[in-house]
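Obj: model holo form, ligand = pyridoxal-5'-phosphate.
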Amino acid sequence: MTRATFPETGQSRTEVLDILKSLRKNDIDWKRGRTPLYVFDAGDDVYEMGRAAFFEFFKENALGKNRAFPSVLKMENDIVDMSLDLLHGGPDACGFMTTGGTESIIQAVQSCRNRTRHDRGEPAFRGNIVTATSAHPAFDKAARLMDIEVRRAPVGADYRADPEAIEALMDDDTMMLVGSAPCFPYGVIDPIADLGALAQRRSVWLHVDACVGGYVAPFARMIGRSIPAFDFEVPGVCSISADLHKYGFCPKPASTVYYRDTTCAEFHAFDFDNWPSGRFYTTTICGTRPAGAIAAAWAVFHHLGLDGYKRIATELMEFVDDYRAGIKAIPGLKVLADPHLSVVAFTSDEVDLFRVAELMSRNGWLPGLLKEPKAIHRLMSLVHHPVLDEYLSDLRDAVETVRATGAKAEGIEAIY
Ligand SMILES: Cc1ncc(COP(=O)(O)O)c(C=O)c1O
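Output (holo structure tokens):
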């Protein structure tokens, strides 16, 4: 591969934009619902609101929210306040915006680790985190950055975290348990109440990773769906990560991290004064970060309101019901576990699903695969709704072909 060279002369805006468009030619067509993850969509109106607000604050820098841009500070605080209402935060609860689920998780792990070090009076305490195999790799990323151990316990028969298996991996150095709401692979919400009770009994921190569910589960509950308690209403939950840029339908990069109280949040911020430029105080790992994402999230919240989010949750969950019924109607397929929201995986005892995925990819459907057990997996939003029948019809054809030929996958791999 040749290395790109810096252009000798500049090109016109039109030329550059044309090149950008042409660069997309091999991309997966997310607008036609072909991606099983990466893009979360709630229709053109929400997209346009987020986009307009993002570019309204395109130049401002959220790093300067405390000194230069009180507008940005207010919007971030409003988002945190509004979200804490959704997540049953009490009067002492607090939170911060970040640039993504991974950053929210790293911040929460760091807060817990430093809180624990402080409380134990052991500044070099290493500690471990115990969770289920289904928890997101962001916890291992955080652990690698901070030299913490992560222990992953097998999930139960229902694919949810198994509190007994988790407890079996705990020891005196365990400082944090993690439950997902829902987990990425299976779309099920872990038994957060049981994990909360365990965390309280063993005096450790419980983090709930609601990066996927944080901004859809509350609305799904409001419209009467059966969603188990997962947030601060559960005793023992110390922190929650929740992504605005997933099912909050806000532009990337935008996530949030919340703490039950100021004691849990005490070690969140980075506060430094040992250099020539004076006090350097940030509430994110990033320094400079886009104010546009904050303005956009604020605008989307206000544009949609509770009724807008409930409307989206209604359409989404009804679509997911139809999707699940469509999967069940294809001989040889079954939905894996009993997903609570719109992350759904299906599996088969009769055909090689990875071969099915290979055939589906010929029609442009990017495969989302699970390897334990072998399954096809999608995080669905409204962009997948208009192509529901097309997806199910292609799927039925692919399953029938694989059944008829008994073909096995030619080398496709499960990659996130
Ligand atoms: C459950 C869960 N947690 C955390 C993350 C990490 O989020 P991000 O990709 O925004 O860093 C994801 C991403 O898909 C996720 O599904």
